[in-house]
Amino acid sequence: MEISNLLNMDANIVLGIVNERLRLECDTIDDLSSRYELDKDQLREKMESLGYRYDPISNQFK
């Protein structure tokens, strides 16, 4: 799936895609950000708008 426009998508869809990529492909949010050329701060803001925060222990947004 192409995720170059990820931050322009609906936040609920972004949550599912990001957690899937973190679970299957990326060890950290930094890895995800660099692999897909995402702005980590914008991603965090988008997830926080839904009430989710990144948990580094489980490597997912909860």
Distance between the termini: 23 Å
Low-confidence stretches: none
SS elements, strand count? 2
As a whole number of angstroms, the C-alpha radius of gyration is: 10 Å
**Biggest sheet character:** 2 strands, antiparallel
Overall shape: it is: globular
Helices and strands, in order, run as HHHEE
Helical content, roughly?
A: 40-55%
Strand coverage percent:
5-15%
- Decide which structural class fits the backbone: mainly alpha
What is the residue-mean pLDDT, rounded to a whole number?
Answer: 89
Number of helices: 3
- If strands are numbered along the chain, what order do they take across the biggest sheet? 1-2
What is the domain tally?
A: 1
Report on this structure:
The protein is mainly alpha-helical. It has one domain. Helix content is 48%, strand content 6%. It contains three helices and two strands. Strands 1-2 form a two-stranded antiparallel sheet. A hairpin with a 4-residue loop joins strand 1 and strand 2. The longest helix is centred in the first third of the chain and has 14 residues. The chain is globular, with a radius of gyration of 10 Å. 15% of the residues are buried. The model has no long low-confidence stretch (mean pLDDT 89).
